[in-house]
Amino acid sequence: MIGKRNFLTKNQIIKLSNHPLINIQSHSKCHVPLTSLNDNDLTRNLVDSKKILERYCSAPITELCYPFGRFSRSIINRASDCGYHNQFSSIPSSVNSTLVIGRSLVQFASKSELKCIIKGGDNILYFWYKIKHYNFI
Question: Could you give the 3-state DSSP secondary structure of residue 135?
């Protein structure tokens, strides 16, 4: 997706990666839900993204944020095997794994919602997020 409309170009990635406060990591190569891919396509998507970004950034790529927040136990394992030591989901806490780190979605939050999120209020939605984003297969 690099260079496509609404995505960063190679030169933008290189420029950002040289900034001391920015750490470029992976969001997969094709930005599709990883749960929709077969094993071969999943591996290729993860490995290709890692190789391309390592080449552009001249730095190790060891973190993955799941596109659309969707993942499964097999995706956690495959990403780990591909060298992604930290993995992120939009579930607002960990998912019984030391590899998956939750994050808070704030981009569409109102001022009052943001205050609740900052105080930890998004953890109330943990089970809803988990059902929506975690494939239990």
Answer: strand
Query: Which tokens is 33 given?
Result: 């839900």
Contact 83, 26 (CB under 8 A): no
| Radius of gyration of the chain measured on its C-alpha atoms | 16
Confidence band of 32 (pLDDT split at 50, 70, 90) = very high
CA distances from 136 to 70, 75, 116, 126, 130 (A): 11, 11, 29, 15, 9
Write down the pLDDT at residue 75.
Answer: 95
What does the pLDDT look like over 77-91, one tens digit per residue?
999 999 999 999 877
Task: Return d(Cα 83, Cα 134) in angstroms, integer.
Answer: 21
> Is the whole-model pTM more than 0.70?
yes
Give backbone dihedrals phi and psi of 60, rounded to 5 degrees, phi first.
-70, 140
CATH number of 10-135: 3.20.20.370
